[in-house]
Sequence to fold (362 residues):
Amino acid sequence: MSLRKVDLAKMHLILGGGKEELFKEIISNKVNFSFREKKDLRDFILNFQLTPKEQENIFKRINETDFLKVEQYIEKNNIRIVTIFDSEYPETLRNVFSPPSILYLTGEIKDHFRIAVVGPRSPSVYAKEVTRKIVRVLSENNISIVSGMASGIDRIAHEESCLASAGSIGVLGAGIDVVYPKDNFQLYNQMKKSPQNVLISEFPLGFPPAKYTFPKRNRIISGLAQGVLITEGSKKSGSMITARHAYEQGKSVYALPGLVSNPLTQGVHQLIKDGATLIESAEDILIDLYPMLKIQAENKKFLNLTDIELSIVRKLEVNPRTIEEIISFSELGINETLRFVSVLEIKGIIKKEINNKYFVII
Fold:
């Protein structure tokens, strides 16, 4: 990581997550700068128009901050720092309302199809069970799950997806080094250490969670995903804020209906009335996404298939088939057919259902 990125993190920290326009001005500054000493930071700040009170607060943070620890944390934990002016900045976030100027990431956001899954911190038993089932199937279909690392539905979404190959993306409502809630400590560490998962934050290191940080991070949750699933939520919940962001961003919104007597379904039912797609299972989402997923699959998974493998896949796309049926239409013989089917399973292209029929994994 260049020293410039480390220094940006220092500057972001002493500005306290505020003065966004000033920070953008600093980021867009093409001149490399380096803060070896605290005096360098103080001198740099004097170049900008600040009120005496703002300057006093910033200087106080400079004096109180151990910048060596900041550098050591970033290096030791392989924190990636990406600004909105960098080519590796997530393209889907460039068009969200007030896109983050800077992002801190524990890994690299892979080029998977992504669905955001959000809901209340104290969901019903029904919502917990259905969320687990839906996320599990989406993950099995190579879809990455985005959520907010909160308790309840968020935690379930991450737990069910973080071990899958497409992984999980956790958008934090605090600094990248802050575990909140505390009982997410094990999940946080698991997400941080696994290469398929990513933790992401727009807040400076050490920035504590606050009431406004969670609604603010919701635009990133929806912005990173191609669609958003709301499993439960009251009319004034954070989930509805995420759904609103999704609509503004032109994303698909999926809603899971529940008992009308449950206050946590009122927001979801309103979404359905307003045009959200009613879903009862992961299959409903997959069917809705199929045209986009099919293009993605053809562009990626099918790219390196042999002609014979591709011919088998094309047949199974139309209808799932038993191994006997595959042997029959392939005309390859038993051993050759079994070999090609095994290869396609290993590549993650096809899978056998409970009824012993093979189908194409989207």
